[in-house]
Amino acid sequence: MNVNTPMNTLGIVKRSIVRADKAAVEKLARFGVATIHEAMGRIGLMKSHMRPIYAGARACGTAVTVLMQPGDNWMLHVVAEQIRPGDLVVAAVTSDCTDGYFGDLLATSFAARGAKGLVIDAGVRDVKDLTAMRFPVFSKAISAKGTVKATLGSVNVPIVCAGAFVNPGDAVIADDDGVVVVPAEFAQRAADAAEAREANEGDKRTKLASGVLGLDLYKMREPLEKAGLKYVD
Amino acid sequence: MNVNTPMNTLGIVKRSIVRADKAAVEKLARFGVATIHEAMGRIGLMKSHMRPIYAGARACGTAVTVLMQPGDNWMLHVVAEQIRPGDLVVAAVTSDCTDGYFGDLLATSFAARGAKGLVIDAGVRDVKDLTAMRFPVFSKAISAKGTVKATLGSVNVPIVCAGAFVNPGDAVIADDDGVVVVPAEFAQRAADAAEAREANEGDKRTKLASGVLGLDLYKMREPLEKAGLKYVD
Amino acid sequence: MNVNTPMNTLGIVKRSIVRADKAAVEKLARFGVATIHEAMGRIGLMKSHMRPIYAGARACGTAVTVLMQPGDNWMLHVVAEQIRPGDLVVAAVTSDCTDGYFGDLLATSFAARGAKGLVIDAGVRDVKDLTAMRFPVFSKAISAKGTVKATLGSVNVPIVCAGAFVNPGDAVIADDDGVVVVPAEFAQRAADAAEAREANEGDKRTKLASGVLGLDLYKMREPLEKAGLKYVD
Amino acid sequence: MNVNTPMNTLGIVKRSIVRADKAAVEKLARFGVATIHEAMGRIGLMKSHMRPIYAGARACGTAVTVLMQPGDNWMLHVVAEQIRPGDLVVAAVTSDCTDGYFGDLLATSFAARGAKGLVIDAGVRDVKDLTAMRFPVFSKAISAKGTVKATLGSVNVPIVCAGAFVNPGDAVIADDDGVVVVPAEFAQRAADAAEAREANEGDKRTKLASGVLGLDLYKMREPLEKAGLKYVD
Amino acid sequence: MNVNTPMNTLGIVKRSIVRADKAAVEKLARFGVATIHEAMGRIGLMKSHMRPIYAGARACGTAVTVLMQPGDNWMLHVVAEQIRPGDLVVAAVTSDCTDGYFGDLLATSFAARGAKGLVIDAGVRDVKDLTAMRFPVFSKAISAKGTVKATLGSVNVPIVCAGAFVNPGDAVIADDDGVVVVPAEFAQRAADAAEAREANEGDKRTKLASGVLGLDLYKMREPLEKAGLKYVD
Amino acid sequence: MNVNTPMNTLGIVKRSIVRADKAAVEKLARFGVATIHEAMGRIGLMKSHMRPIYAGARACGTAVTVLMQPGDNWMLHVVAEQIRPGDLVVAAVTSDCTDGYFGDLLATSFAARGAKGLVIDAGVRDVKDLTAMRFPVFSKAISAKGTVKATLGSVNVPIVCAGAFVNPGDAVIADDDGVVVVPAEFAQRAADAAEAREANEGDKRTKLASGVLGLDLYKMREPLEKAGLKYVD
Questions:
Q1: Which among A31, A60, E133, F90 has most CB atoms closer than 10 A?
Q2: What is the ipTM of this complex?
Q3: Phi, psi torsion values for D21, nearest 5 degrees
């Protein structure tokens, strides 16, 4: 460790980040969060309080991250400049806060920079306008409460957002089922695994629709009996 | 008590249950949860955290019950075999869990068996697909988080689901207002009482719409005065 | 203080209240909650658990207030008589309760009296009917659980509703972003301030849409540097 | 079913109940809640929001049950008369409520009747006095908020309390770890099973204290390897 | 209304406030929160999430109020100067926040100014030191998370704290059961009413301890029967 | 990236980890969590729901980490073998769970291995015994609910615990104010910074105790005036 390495990562904007492979991210965009989460081995999911602001919202992009103070959205203006087309902004706060950090003006700016959406473990507002714009936002809360611009946070540092660890450049996929983080280095493998998993599901769906039981399809009767399951009348 | 009666009801599947009368359940299906709950004497309602996964979801059926472990949906495959047309699966977990126990594959299987829907005091996923299928689900959470298949629970034992006691075979009705449980033996009387109550409401609605006050319609002025209500300017 | 002034404000209905200026309230109705809240200096917002029962619900009116006991909606019938066209009922409970205090019959009565909607820090039911009526309701919960009519509360006394202080006659505006209270005496100034604020936003939106950054539009680069923000690669 | 069986169980006081065997309950009183819960097969535990009002509180008795309305403690006076020495009052509310249903006067009365304590899924008050009396209370909340006496509930009907099903007469044990319900018919077997379990623990404790690993004591190495556990450096 | 009256009350320190009568506050200090709350007619109680940081904490004083921003405790330094001996600081935040706004240094300063304690609807830290100092604090949370000093709030304006409305100068009493606010003008009458209530309780306690039932002491048997209560065997 | 790097980190036990410098950790043990958190630049704090199971509990050690499934504590037996004297076990679950993962037997085993305590974002039980042992535990909940041993997690992989990122080997300090994580590489600098901060506090405390105001001690009057603070009478 260099003695000059900052112990405190607040007050920093990292400009150059390694983004997940573009083609891999585009491939990930074809799959649902549940499928990708399974394909990843059930790692990287945010907590279930993260909800879309409108039904059917969906986003996939490379993370530019931002860490903010409670009640202070100053860094959302700073992060805007770091957005490249295809990025998704992932925002966390240093302690729990439901204030409305983000509204239609910032959404206009983010969209102009090519952002794919916003994932924020805090509140947002102007949801009617955001919905009309079809700008996908996943948040913890909806609140008209505004924020100040007074204290520094950081941009493009590793963050914990809604219980998930996010590195700048990671692929992040969000839909009605939640938000999942795919480390940049695994984007291609996760996309391939999701594809394989989905291919496999079509056949299962057909069989189940025809009345075949999961008990038989997945050969569960024997392990259930071994575990001691008793049928009684 | 027979000394061999199991103290522990985990690991059991009861195959033969007494279902509420079919005609009574069909009659109950015509009424809203609030009406039935009132007609029942305000008994049997689940807690208000049970919400439909899409607006307008609605279900009514006879309960097949399932008790599961946190993070483990193995018994949902076991319960599928016990579903008969007209049944509604009612699922509880031995401790609070928001994991996604149920998705589009299980829904396909349940639907193929004739299930009317699912009431689950836990999380579900694939909500976009479930909505497209119009398979009604009432749950505590939405989460992409998958579950394992490792530990036994039970099927068709009495359970507590979201604060309500449910016996297999009970009639269960769910809509935008919540979920109510009608003991099988009272299904007909509850349906009749709901019908009487609803008949009574049409007249009240007309009077209230014409400007008559509830104070007068329900003759509340005297009891309010007796209770000590004071009007001041 | 007169020794006869009641220490306890329960059991009182105040009939004559000073309502916010009608034209000012009509002007306020043109603006969103977030805009008005900002224009007010970020004062008067209810907590973010207050949500519309259907997407797009929106209401603006002068408050008639009602304070109730847990599980008891008797005073909603009392308040109905005090509603004048243009009023919005604002209801609080003396302790946290999610019971369904309000349904389609009361909505019919309130609408017949000219009410603009209901803001209630408790639960409501019959949401399908309320939605069909387009009667805007903002509440903490949805619950089929009925309430009794046994204990007095008060009408048109000052109340705390969802963390905000409300005097009868205040202007209250509610939309997808939340609920804000404007003291009657400030209704005109708040409406004017909201108008000025909104006029100002159009120009900002155009610039942000063209790619201008908030960093430059709001001249944030210098204060950020002064605060110590560091850019690294 | 008799057509006269009440569908609604509100407004009833059952005087004669079958209490769990006295000797069995006394034996249960020797064991902790965690031990009994394990011995029962992990059934019958209340939710973890039930906490003692003072550290070290502990109670064991036969349940007299009471169901109340939100904000209304009338039935606590009714239940007092049904208490016999060795009973424990178990109280539930028809919807979530944190009001202070119980204080030092009721505790004085319950204690005079021979009650072993109170388990209540609501709030209590006068905790300083209750602590001084060493009257064990397990509750969801502490609140000075008083309640009214206006609406009927029931005494000695089956209830759901904090997620657990309780029949009058069941053995209920509460300590720092939570509250567990043992059906009356299983009291003796549960006590015996708890005794066996505890006997078994002393030896394990000695081995673990000497440095033996649970991995070896419980022979977990092979099943872990089979499950796929990998050790890396 | 004067056109210059500020619509926004942020950024203001009111130096001269009317404090509740000193003797009345001293008399109130002799009674518990539950007793005073009852004596007041069940008005003015804060929500039950307000808890003492150590068992047995107790405080009574005249409120100096402070309104702060999330994550920002600047105004606690401003309020310190306004404290007079016998005051109690009552602090609210403009949106929910659990950060540690207050610790041992501020407590040292407050104590030096003669403060009786702190009631804060947010978090505090250094609880070991605060406990050692026996400086009574009632808060929503305990958190080591520090706060910034960047944005103005107000001192000695009316606030809503934990759901209760507080005017500067009001009497505030806090103990294990919660926190109650007595408007300054009613301090004497509330103290007298509390005294009367408590006098009355001693006799009741004796009777209940001797085995007299509340049913008889409060003459409840007749109203219960009228309400329809049925005794069954 | 090596194509063989595991995408999924479940099912792994890392045996060799780099622990924070022993002397640095010992020095950190002298300071409170609030002080260290400040000294670190307000980074690394767990959420405030993490509470000690007994007042005054305190622990400091090097993290051995464990990731588990909901309702499954198998890996706590696996982690025991990896504990070295001076370590603190830090445990997270893949989704929210309050089950009792840990009790007196595991505590006996951990203590025999030299563990300094346990930090777990889940529930624990046997709190009376743990308190008697003075084995410091910081948890989200207390619950008698047992767990199964059926599904793999991991040991000594990076985890997110209660919102904080923890690498195996990091220094973790826990006391009444919460739990803070110090990256291993910064342990010495954090200890030094904490020492400097604390040295600085003694002088401040003396001044504040003598009645000097923070307004003057911290020279806040000018910045407050600049920010627009107004004093009125």
A1: F90
A2: 0.94
A3: -55, 130
